Structure formats: structure tokens, C-alpha cells
Amino acid sequence: MSGILGQLFDRGTIAGLERAVQFTVRRHESLLSNVANADTPGYRRTDLDQGEFRRLLARSYAADAAGRRDAFEGVRGDRAELVSGSRGPFRFSSLGRGPLRHDGNDVSVEREMALLSENAGKYSAYSALLRKGLRQMRAAITGRPEEA
After folding, report:
1. Residue 91 forms part of a structural domain
2. DSSP string over 9-74
3. 48 and 23 in contact (C-beta within 8 Å)?
4. What is the DSSP string of 63-104?
5. I want to staple 139 with a disulfide (CB 3.0 to 4.6 A). Which of 41, 68, 120, 146 is the partner?
6. How does pLDDT run along the chain (148 residues), one tens digit per residue?
7. Closest Cα to residue 63, out of 12, 19, 21, 18?
8. Phi-psi bin for 88: left (phi > 0), alpha (psi -120 to 50), beta?
């Protein structure tokens, strides 16, 4: 997007929240895959690097404030782009591998379920903040007070 719409939606808080929602969705997929493969011999758990995502998001905000190119530029929201190649925060990795069982699998269903619960909470919070921001933007554009 370019122009005023690009400034509203591609930068700042709205864009950051959208990226955070996308990240939690992709992470949920990874964690669910781990649970689904908990009994698959030789399966090694995968996860998305939350620390790298936070660093990239911070660099994006800093670049935005300085008027430079966004660190997320070129990273689209579709699954193939987000989880393949060297796209930093959206790349599946083998972070936090647990101890191997006799069958070569390192998935702990209890740990994955706890991570799923934590991730779902983050998704809910980010989604609520994004909806609130968009409602406020709509209220500012239309000149009508924000609806609850």
C-alpha cells in the first residue's frame, strides 16, 4: 500500500499488532504439529523464534520512527512466505528441544499444551488490541464515537 493508507496500515501500532497476530497463528500451527506428532518415532519438535520476532519488530518500529525502510518489508502474511527460507521470526526452528525418548521423539505433550495455552492468550490480547485500534481509526474517519 502507498500513500495515506500505507501510512495508516503498513506502519506503527496497527501493523505491529497485525504482525503479532500473524506470528501467534503461525506459532500455534507449529505447536499443534508437535502435538499431532507426539507419537511419531524420530519426530523432533519445531517452534518459531519469539526472541527473533521481537527483535525484528523493535527494529521495524525504530526504522519507522526514523523514516527508514521497514524491517518487515518483503515478509508477506501467507503461510509459505512466513515459514520458509530465511525470513527470521517466521522460520521454523528446533528451539527448546526436550530430551529424546527411546524412539527419537522429543515432544512433551504437556509442555506443548502449556505453550499452546500461553500462545492462545497472546493471540487473544493482540487481536483485542488490533480490533480496538481499528475501531478507533474508524471512529476518527467517520466522525462518530467509537461503538463498544
Report:
1. yes
2. HSSHHHHHHHHHHHHHHHHHHHHHHHHHTTTSTT----EE-HHHHHHHHHHHHHHHHHT---TTTT
3. yes
4. HHHHT---TTTT--SSHHHHHSTT-GGGSEE-TT-----TTS
5. 146
6. 455 555 555 567 888 899 899 999 999 999 999 999 999 999 999 998 888 888 888 887 777 666 665 555 544 444 333 433 334 445 555 555 667 788 989 999 999 999 999 999 999 999 999 999 889 888 888 888 766 5
7. 12
8. left
Q: Which domain holds residue 133?
A: 3-142
What is the chain's alpha carbon radius of gyration, rounded to the nearest angstrom?
A: 18
**Nine-digit cell at 71?**
524491517
Domain for residue 148, yes or no?
Answer: no
Reported pTM: 0.72
Structure confidence at residue 23 (pLDDT): 93
- The answer to whether residue 147 is domain-embedded is no
Q: Cell numbers at residue 4, please?
A: 495515506
Number of domains, the chain: 1
Residue with cell 481509526: 137
